Amino acid sequence: MKMRKYAAYICSAAVILLAAPGAHAVRVEDPAEKPQFRVTISMDRYVFTEDDQVIVNMVIHNNSDKKESFRVYDTSARGNAYTTFQPMVMDAGGREAESTVPHRMMNRDFKEVLRDIEPREVTLMPNETMLHTLNLKSVYDLDLNTEYRVKGYFYPDAMEKTVLMSENTLTFKIVRSPGQERRTVIAGIRRELAPTEVVVLLLNAERDGNWNNFFKYLRAEKFINAYPQFVQLYSAADELEKLKIIEDFNKFLMRPRSDYIKDYSVIRESIRDDRTEAYVDVVVKRYAPRKPVSYRYRYTLEKYRDFWLCTDIEATVTKGESR
């Protein structure tokens, strides 16, 4: 059964690629053989604003017991050449988003595209990984408020046309920037959320169970360091394991809590002079069977482009109070 599923998985990759504009015929290896490389993809968030880069990471893992090499045609001068590393973005209906890659838009022959690029060889030792990042906005025209799916395709040597498909598929969405209004003749001012506003939105999202908004205001790969039950596993994990740990961490944050938020109040905000880091102190009252318990939270926020995102939290119990 597993073999049939794997064969269907490989065949579907070939069908998708052949249907894409500018795609070329591909050859897949015998699914009964252990592939030399494993491919996974990751994103630091799943909700992006219109001003964000939409970064996808393609992780290439040497799956064999000896060193393996592949040829990279995406040179430093052509970082988005869309040759060796090809993430594919589709909407919920399975239609590929509009590509902005020149050679795909012009339906150029793939070998002709590669002919002008001098490849470099990358060698990985057993269990070693390579991380390639790409901004999806540089290769696709992406719309606001559309749920997209992305899958990665990796060519160990694009001239030979063998392709490996990522083991996972991710979903993401692009929304309007928080706190930024549409520009008009009268109001054309760029607006920015203060650190306190971000924390308020984060706490409101938790209280309301609006997890899409909740994760919009934090960086999970840094926020995880505040949780001892996850941080040791995460710091010792390789790139593949970190994806699963972050997924488990997000589920932990979304778990139903009996000590739900009853109320909160912001005490103070402080911002470093260089405006790279900020601290927001909040008193949060959570439900408890006998009487509510008050916690003092200190959120650390870091500047990410034009927005503040929560990267750490310290919590101490202050006192309980009568209902």
Provide a descriptive summary of the structure in words:
This protein is α+β, with helices and mostly antiparallel strands and 323 residues long. The chain has 2 domains: 2-175, Immunoglobulin-like (Sandwich), CATH 2.60.40.2360; 195-320, Nuclear Transport Factor 2, Chain: A (Roll), CATH 3.10.450. It contains 8 helices and 15 strands. The strands form 5 sheets. It has a 4-stranded mixed sheet. A hairpin with a 6-residue loop joins strand 13 (277-286) and strand 14 (293-304). The N and C termini lie far apart (58 Å). The model is unreliable at 1-31 and 181-189 (pLDDT under 50).
What is the beta-strand fraction?
25-35%
| CATH topology type of the largest domain | Immunoglobulin-like
Give the name of the CATH architecture of the largest domain.
Answer: Sandwich
- Characterize the overall form: elongated
Numbering strands along the chain, what is their spatial order in the largest sheet?
A: 2-11-10-5
Spatial gap, N to C terminus? 58 Å
Mean pLDDT: 82
Q: Give the low-pLDDT segments.
A: 1-31, 181-189
What is the string of helix and strand elements?
HEEEEEEHHEEEEEHHHHHEEEE
Q: How many domain units?
A: 2
Profile the largest sheet.
4 strands, mixed
